[in-house]
Inverse folding.
């Protein structure tokens, strides 16, 4: 049998990218299967310090460590609460170090569209294209979202678009519940500041995070729900995420029903 030719570096990189590996954790590869100690150790377990650190080094190391979960959530709430405008909120997020996703992301993906829009769409988290451009929904699913919006006579100058998580999770992995909890106060404040007539959550993660639902998107989509900003109630509807529609185009029919219902409410409210 002829052995397979060795892949080139470019082919290997393309393979890693395709598999969602897009950042290096160390300069040297670690074969966790070959080393029995490493193979058994849970990946996240830090090894005990080999040397005694000075007080100055300890304070530097502490400053580098992400804040403990509860503290990060509390400081996110406090920071978001103080933002009087969308610009201030963006600046606060830019400085916020309570979510480690900012360290692997290229750019903060804050929002796109019109801050005075009457309808706001919220997705889950940016992907690769969004991370590069710093704008939400600019990749393949974004193109479909544009077509969905166009189908009800709107475009990005008439809607506002954001995500629950404003930094791309490495390799597009699912954000952890803790990452979602830390980012939640910021998107909640963003919704309050935009103050749309209609809030549309795209897909299950943003629906569950913002509307507090427990059921899947099949059950929650297409129904009018209330979103409480703290100062007022906004009409909210969950619908399919465009990435889901790209994989399952047969659900576009239901998505169209949701969009028509949204258009009708916008028309009535104007
Ligand atoms: N998916 C999302 O949920 N948000 C984006 O911005 C892009 C893809």
């Amino acid at each position: 049998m002829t052995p397979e030719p060795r892949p080139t570096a470019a082919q290997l990189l393309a393979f890693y990218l395709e598999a969602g590996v897009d950042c290096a954790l160390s300069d040297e590869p670690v074969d966790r299967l070959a080393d029995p100690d490493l193979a058994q150790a849970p990946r996240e377990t830090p090894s005990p310090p080999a040397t005694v650190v000075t007080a100055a080094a300890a304070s530097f190391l502490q400053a580098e460590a992400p804040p403990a979960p509860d503290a990060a959530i509390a400081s996110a709430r406090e920071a978001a609460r103080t933002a009087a405008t969308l610009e201030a909120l963006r600046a606060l997020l830019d400085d916020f170090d309570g979510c480690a996703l900012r360290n692997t992301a290229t750019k903060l993906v804050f929002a796109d569209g019109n801050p005075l829009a009457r309808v706001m769409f919220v997705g889950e988290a940016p992907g690769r294209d969004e991370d590069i451009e710093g704008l939400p929904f600019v990749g393949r699913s974004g193109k479909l979202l544009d077509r969905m919006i166009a189908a009800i006579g709107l475009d990005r100058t008439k809607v506002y678009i954001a995500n629950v998580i404003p930094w791309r999770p490495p390799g597009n992995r699912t954000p952890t519940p803790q990452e979602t909890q830390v980012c939640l106060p910021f998107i909640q404040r963003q919704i309050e500041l935009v103050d749309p007539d209609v809030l549309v959550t795209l897909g299950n993660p943003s629906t569950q995070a913002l509307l507090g639902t427990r059921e899947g998107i099949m059950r929650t989509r297409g129904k009018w729900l209330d979103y409480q900003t703290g100062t007022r109630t906004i009409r909210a509807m969950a619908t399919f995420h465009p990435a889901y529609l790209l994989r399952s185009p047969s659900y576009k029919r239901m998505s169209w029903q949701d969009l028509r219902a949204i258009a009708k409410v916008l028309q009535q409210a104007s």
Notes: The mean pLDDT is 87. The two ends are 72 Å apart (CA to CA). Residues 25 and 131 are 19 Å apart (CA to CA). Residues 123-127, 130, 136-137, 141-142, 163, 243 surround uracil (CB under 6 Å).
